[in-house]
Amino acid sequence: MNFRQSLSMIAVAMVVVALVGAANLVAQGKAARPTSVAVVDVQQVFNALDEKSTVEADITQQTEQLQKEEQDRQTELKALQADLGILAAGTPAYQETQTKLENKALEFQVWKQFNQRKLEREKVVRLEALYRKVVDAIGGVAKQNNYDIVMFKDSTGDLKGENQQQLAAMIQVRKVLYSNPDLDITDQITQKLNNEWNNRKK
What we know:
The chain is mainly α and 202 residues long. Helix content is 75%, strand content 4%.
């Protein structure tokens, strides 16, 4: 047997092995249960949630209250500054007013930083809780309808990057390039969460 004949026999053997492997894969595929998949546009769900509107209204109200108190504190500082301007430097009244102004200014800065951080934490905590509700609702609907996998569907819309690098980054983070509309359970999730929220409010 020459070298060419040996190569031919090896090639035939490889084809036979490949065909047997393919046949086994087909047989396994027929035996396995098909995977059921759904998709959800999480951003669309968030935007349509009644509870999110309530959360945003609460945060806005807290922000406005802080802004009002900040204005009041600034007005007090301006009044002390004005008093300092009409007092004679070096007098006990001047020194007392100056000390009070410095203490109030320091107190204002500490108060402002503390409340800004507190408000930011409030936003994060409430949005995180809302996200967990969305995930739980998706899990519930998936179990109810026997979905094995629920994938994150990107919000529809044009990709508009300011430059090539930004556009490439936006394309790379897309998770689902196409899905059959029948697989989309976004509206189902939104309705479920809104019904639960409105029933809880009642």
